[in-house]
Specification:
CATH architecture of the domain at 220-404: 3-Layer(aba) Sandwich
Strand order of the largest sheet: 14-11-13-12-18-19-16-21
Number of strands: 21
Oligomer: single chain
Radius of gyration: 22 Å
Mean pLDDT: 96
Strand content: 15-25%
Low-confidence stretches: 450-457
Helix content: 25-40%
CATH topology of the domain at 220-404: Vanillyl-alcohol Oxidase, Chain A, domain 3
CATH superfamily of the domain at 220-404: FAD-linked oxidase, cap domain/gating helix
Distance between the termini: 34 Å
CATH class of the domain at 220-404: Alpha Beta
C-alpha cells in the first residue's frame, strides 16, 4: 500500500482508527497459529500493511469500497484466538480489526442477543446471566474471544454437550454482512442463510451485526474427578454426557499424563491419574460425586461455579486450552481435531494406540450433533515428529472412520469445516468477486474474470 492510500483510509475513519506502528501491525496480524508446528514457519512472516479499526457498519462499508477500487486485500480480525491462521493476511493489505465494534444492543425477552462482532464472549455471558440467560456454547478462550471471531472461525465449546455447535439448532439466528463490491451492500442473512457466512474466516463478507440465541441460565457446579484407568474415566464421562437426566455444560476426559501439565490446578489433579472435568447443575453435584464414587473415581474438587472471573475455572483446561497447557510444558506437543464414531469409539482409540503408541494422548469432549445425539469429539495431544508423520496419523484416523478437521492447514477446504453444498463458495462469488477478502484461504474460489461457467454455477 502507498502512503497516500493509508492517508485516504485515515480520512474516512479518523487517524486514531488506523494503526501503522510496525510492532502493533505485526501483533494484530497474528493469531494462535503457532499451535501448529507446520503453520508456524509457513505463516510467521506474513502480516498486513496497516490496521483499520472501524466503529460502525458505515465505516466498514467505506473501507471495503475504497479497497475494492484499489484492489487492496482485506483480512478481518476478531480477538485473534483462532488456531488455523484464519486472521493472518497472506497478501498484506488492510487488517480489519473489528474489536471496537463491541456493542450489546439488547437481549430480547425470548433470549436472543443482538450485538456487534467485537463484543467479547465473556462480557456477553456476564450480561446475559444478569438477565436470566447464558451462552449456549463458548470456547475456552471465552474471556478474550469476540462473538464475530467465534462465528467466523470457531465451531463449538463449553455448552456443546447440551446445545451443539454454532451451526446447530438455530443458535445463530441472523447475521448482517457487508459485501466487497464497487458499492458494498449490507445483507441480512436469516435462518438457514446464515450458513452462507458461518465459519468462512471472513472470506465472503464482513459480519457487522449478530443475532445469537441464548439458553436459560443454570446455576452450575464444577467437579474434577480422578480415576486409576483411562477406560474408567471415559466410561464415566460418557455415561453422564449421554444421559439426558444430567444437566451439564462440560464433560471432558483427559488421559494421563495430560492433567499433570495443568500447573495452576495441580492440587486437583493427582500425579499420573486420568481426569474428568465437568460442569453440572448445582443441585446435581452431590449425585455426581456419589455416581463418581460408584464408578471408581475420586472427586478432588466439587464446588459451586462462581463465574468466569473466579479460580479455579476448570474450562480453562478444556477444549483447546488443553493443548496450550501441554505446549507450555513441552513445545513438542501439538494436536488434532477429531470426531469419533460413538458406536466404535473404543475400537477406534485402540487402533490409534496400537499404531502410534504414546505419540497420541486422548483428550475427549462430548458434544451434541445436529441429529441430537451426544458423541465423543476429541482434541488429542500429539507429539510432533514431522509433517509426514502428522499426515500419516490423519490418514489413519480417516481410514478408520475418525473425522479429522486438520488444524495444520491454512485453508477452509482442508480444515474440514467447508460445507459440501458449497454455499460459502457461492456467497464469495456473490459478495467478493475479486477475491480480496482474506485471499488465499478459500482454495476452491477462482476470481470471476478467470472463472469458468462451471466454476461459478
Amino acid at each position: 500500500m502507498t502512503r497516500s492510500q493509508i492517508e485516504d483510509i485515515k480520512s474516512m475513519v479518523g487517524d486514531d482508527q488506523v494503526i501503522t506502528t510496525p510492532s502493533t501491525v505485526e501483533r494484530l496480524s497474528k493469531d494462535f497459529y503457532w499451535y501448529s508446528p507446520v503453520l508456524k514457519p509457513a505463516l510467521e512472516n506474513r502480516r498486513g500493511e496497516v490496521v483499520a479499526q472501524p466503529l460502525n457498519t458505515n465505516e466498514v462499508a467505506a473501507i471495503l469500497r475504497y479497497c475494492y477500487a484499489h484492489e487492496i486485500p482485506v483480512t478481518a480480525r476478531g480477538a485473534g484466538t483462532g488456531n488455523y491462521g484464519q486472521a493472518i493476511p497472506l497478501q498484506g493489505g488492510v487488517v480489519l480489526d473489528l474489536t471496537r465494534m463491541d456493542k450489546l444492543e439488547q437481549i430480547t425477552s425470548d433470549g436472543v442477543a443482538l450485538c456487534e462482532p467485537g463484543l467479547r464472549l465473556g462480557a456477553l455471558e456476564g450480561k446475559a446471566r444478569e438477565q436470566g440467560w447464558e451462552l449456549r456454547c463458548y470456547p475456552s478462550t471465552v474471556v478474550k474471544s469476540s462473538v464475530g471471531g467465534f462465528l467466523g472461525g470457531g465451531s463449538g465449546g463449553i455448552g456443546s454437550v447440551a446445545h451443539g455447535g454454532l451451526r446447530d439448532f438455530d443458535t445463530v439466528r441472523a447475521l448482517q454482512v457487508v459485501t466487497m463490491e464497487p458499492e458494498p451492500r449490507i445483507q441480512l442473512h436469516e435462518g438457514q442463510a446464515v450458513h452462507d457466512i458461518l465459519h468462512a474466516w471472513g472470506t465472503n463478507g464482513i459480519i457487522t451485526k449478530i443475532w445469537l440465541a441464548l439458553a436459560p441460565k443454570v446455576e452450575w457446579a464444577q467437579a474434577a474427578i480422578a480415576f486409576e484407568t483411562f477406560e474408567a474415566a471415559f466410561d464415566f464421562s460418557e455415561r453422564v454426557a449421554v444421559d439426558d437426566d444430567w444437566t451439564k455444560r462440560l464433560a471432558t476426559t483427559f488421559e494421563a499424563p495430560i492433567a499433570d501439565y495443568f500447573s495452576p490446578v495441580r492440587a486437583l489433579c493427582p500425579l499420573g491419574k486420568h481426569m474428568v472435568f465437568m460442569l453440572v447443575a448445582l443441585d446435581q453435584l452431590q449425585a455426581l460425586k456419589q455416581t463418581a464414587i460408584q464408578a471408581g473415581g475420586t472427586a478432588t474438587y466439587a464446588e459451586p461455579y462462581r463465574g468466569l472471573k473466579f479460580a479455579p475455572l476448570l474450562s480453562d483446561y478444556a477444549w483447546n486450552h488443553t493443548t496450550l497447557w501441554a505446549i507450555k510444558h513441552d513445545a513438542a506437543y501439538t494436536y488434532l481435531q477429531c470426531g469419533f464414531d460413538p458406536d466404535r469409539v473404543r475400537e477406534q482409540m485402540a487402533l490409534l494406540r496400537n499404531r502410534f503408541g504414546q505419540e497420541i494422548l486422548f483428550h475427549l469432549e462430548f458434544i451434541k450433533n445436529s441429529e441430537g445425539r451426544v458423541i465423543p469429539a476429541a482434541i488429542p495431544l500429539v507429539r510432533f515428529v514431522s509433517a509426514e508423520r502428522l499426515n500419516e496419523m490423519i490418514a489413519c484416523c480417516r481410514a478408520n472412520g475418525v473425522f479429522v478437521a486438520n488444524p495444520h492447514v491454512n485453508n477452509l477446504e482442508d480444515g474440514g469445516r467447508f460445507r459440501e453444498d458449497h454455499v460459502q463458495l457461492q456467497a464469495k462469488y456473490r459478495y467478493d468477486p475479486k477475491g480480496l477478502l482474506n485471499p488465499g484461504k478459500m482454495l476452491s474460489f477462482t476470481p470471476k474474470e478467470t472463472a469458468t461457467e462451471e466454476t461459478v454455477r
